[in-house]
Write a structure and sequence with these properties.
180 residues; alpha+beta; four-stranded mixed beta sheet
């Protein structure tokens, strides 16, 4: 996946983590349109396909640049164009840094096979709703070192089978919720 900045990487990670996003394309196409008396061109940062069947075009720009009238104009016309075609448009400038850091950490457990399926299943059946992460680690470890319990729990958090408040730093005190 192509990204040009840490800010774009953050948006990419959050899109990958979002269960409503089913497809991600970086720099998906050129837009070309006449705006006033000029022909303008633009390449959006991301194209997201959403579970509900909609499409979202995303441009990533640091918040401090959005006040610049030239930047605002350069982001406005692509939005108007894609919205006229029935797509969603998003200008993204960041998110809670703790959330982004937690998702960045959990992304290390997103690939199938990084953690064994049997270990993930064992963890799933060992965790009770509202267990703290520390309690869940002890329950999953049972006779093994506690550090072997963390990877399957992190994989379950990435997959959405478990959830916790990711706007707070992940710790042993994080409360886990089982998905329905």
């Amino acid at each position: 996946m192509v990204y040009e900045s840490r800010l774009e990487l953050a948006r990419l990670l959050l899109a990958d983590f979002d269960p409503d996003v089913v497809g991600i394309f970086a720099q998906p196409f050129w837009l070309r349109a006449r705006v006033g008396d000029r022909v303008r061109r633009h390449v959006p940062d991301f194209l997201l396909f959403m579970r509900r069947g909609t499409v979202r075009v995303v441009n990533v720009k640091p918040a401090d640049r959005l006040a610049d009238p030239k930047v605002a104009a350069a982001l406005a016309w692509p939005g108007a164009l894609v919205e006229r075609h029935g797509w969603e448009y998003e200008v993204w400038s960041g998110a809670d840094p703790v959330l982004v850091e937690n998702v960045r950490f959990l992304a290390g457990y997103r690939r199938v096979g990084v953690v064994g399926a049997a270990d993930i299943d064992r963890a799933w059946y060992s965790v009770r709703d509202r267990d703290s992460l520390a309690v869940a680690e002890r329950a999953v470890a049972v006779g093994r070192p506690r550090h072997v319990a963390r990877p399957p729990l992190m994989a379950l958090l990435w997959s959405g089978r478990l959830s916790t408040d990711l706007t707070r730093p992940l710790s042993g005190e994080s409360i886990l919720r089982r998905s329905a």
